[in-house]
Amino acid sequence: MTLSSIILLWKEEVPIKLVLLGDVGAGKSSLVLRFVKGQFVEFQESTIGAAFFSQTLAVNDATVKFEIWDTAGQERYHSLAPMYYRGAAAAIIVYDITNQEAQAYAQEHGLFFMETSAKTAANVNDVFYEIAKRLPRVQPVQNSAGMVLMDRPAERVASTSCCS
Ligand SMILES: Nc1nc2c(ncn2[C@@H]2O[C@H](COP(=O)(O)OP(=O)(O)OP(=O)(O)O)[C@@H](O)[C@H]2O)c(=O)[nH]1
To answer: Does the keyword Nucleotide-binding apply (predicted)?
Structure first.
């Protein structure tokens, strides 16, 4: 066995906690199932409590590991939501596309907006990719020329005076 055959390239996975929030039946589970398993079902069961999924994605030079919490939209589970969005790097607010006001709301609040379809898979991978790209930990390393040291103003040498 040659040395080169036993050298393994090890790349660190960047974990990203992401939460899906939105009304009951908005399509949260369908979006994540399309992303993670490539599946879509017409009659998706309503989520009870929350469900966890993970999926990796290559972004820039990094491998991002999404740790996804799919929350339940039913009113009775609303009090649980903070448990899932606490410490999350990003949240996807899922809404029914027939709700025309959502894009204007996103623009008004400076939020990233993208239309997706779990049914046709349109923009599903893209939305996760775009989120990962925007996170500081996944930004490409800047080609910096090094650290610039600022000159400090010369400290005045204390003069000793004596003997008036
Ligand atoms: N046409 C179409 N239907 C969708 C899409 N996404 C979800 N649906 C349908 O909408 C219904 C509800 O979707 P879910 O993914 O269960 O919604 P949810 O937000 O997870 O619902 P809760 O778990 O109850 O909060 C399902 O029957 C899906 O088939 C989509 O992109 N296009």
So the answer is: yes
